[in-house]
Automatic annotation (TrEMBL):
InterPro entries: MJ0683-like (IPR040086), rSAM (IPR007197), rSAM_sf (IPR058240). Residues 22-185 form the Radical SAM core domain. Keywords: Iron, Iron-sulfur, Metal-binding. It holds the Pfam family Radical_SAM. The lineage of its organism: Bacteria, Bacillati, Bacillota, Bacillota incertae sedis, Caldicellulosiruptorales. It comes from Caldicellulosiruptor saccharolyticus (strain ATCC 43494 / DSM 8903 / Tp8T 6331). This is Radical SAM domain protein. Gene3D superfamilies: 3.80.30.30. GO terms for molecular function: catalytic activity; iron-sulfur cluster binding; metal ion binding. CDD domains: Radical_SAM.
Length: 269
């Protein structure tokens, strides 16, 4: 871990329904094996480091945020954690996300948080003070044998779903991001059955196979499903018929649980 200084902190977003992204950390020690934010290595001086094994923090993030926050208009939304997790383990000590939330609240900024960490509940006192705030968790599978391999240092999926329930009880708008959806591994029906009554909206995303370390991912998937099944999984992630079927299922589940469907994303080559 090392401290770095940034020149800017709010970046214009290309993501749907988000105007700015805010990342106080570089890298993420949750070490999710399917993460496609690994491209950040070549921009941050970590080209030879293993993704998931390092994190840098922007020591002047709050100072820069105070200067830049004025450019966010009242109808615009800021996403905390687009290429990192704002609540990864080091946040428990550094409190950069918590202090950022205090600044955003003071400015009455509309914020969105996406995390895999139960640590977000620590800040429920601040989040409850927002007029416009939404907190989501990403979850793609519930099987212990799967998440311990693919998400070794994130909060387990059941803890994440508990987070949604607690936030919902506190009156905070919540959402579920079912990602990554991996053929033969992800069970989106079971995820909805546990989380469906605790969310306002949902999004889904197929596993992104357009990545630099696909060989590494392939070897990891082999541990879960065997050598012969991996090619079928990767092909299905780009197969129009499969994508249409799984999207239809996702949309049907949104209707069944009466939650807003805010998008289903695929990454075709």
């Amino acid at each position: 871990m090392q401290a770095i200084r940034c020149k800017t902190i709010l970046t214009k977003s290309k993501l749907p329904s988000v105007d700015y992204c805010y990342n106080v950390y570089i890298g993420c020690t949750h070490a999710c094996q399917y993460c496609y934010a690994e491209f950040m290595k070549k921009f941050t001086g970590h080209i030879n480091d293993e993704w998931g094994q390092f994190v840098d923090y922007k020591e002047n993030a709050l100072e820069i945020l105070e200067k830049e926050i004025k450019k966010v208009k009242k109808n615009e939304k800021v996403l905390l954690g687009s290429v990192t997790d704002s609540y990864q383990p080091i946040e428990k000590k550094l409190l950069l996300t918590r202090k950022s939330l205090e600044l955003f609240l003071k400015n009455k900024t509309h914020i969105s948080i996406l995390t895999k960490s139960a640590l977000v509940l620590r800040d429920i006192d601040i989040l409850s003070g927002y007029d416009k705030c939404e907190v989501g968790i990403s979850c793609g599978f519930l099987d212990k044998n799967v998440y311990q391999i693919l998400e070794p240092r994130a909060s387990n999926p059941y803890e994440r779903i508990m987070v949604l329930r607690e936030l919902k009880r506190a009156g905070i708008r919540t959402y579920l991001f079912i990602s990554p959806i991996i053929p033969f591994i992800s069970d989106i029906e079971s995820i909805f059955s546990l989380a469906g009554d605790s969310i306002d909206f949902a999004m889904g995303e197929i596993l992104n196979t357009k990545r630099n370390n696909i060989k590494k991912l392939r070897s990891i998937l082999e541990k879960l499903v065997g050598y012969n099944k991996v090619s079928e999984i990767l092909n299905l992630c780009k197969d129009n018929e499969y994508l249409s079927t799984i999207q239809d299922k996702f949309e049907a589940l949104c209707r069944a649980y009466r939650v807003e469907n805010k998008g289903f994303f695929a990454h075709k080559n």
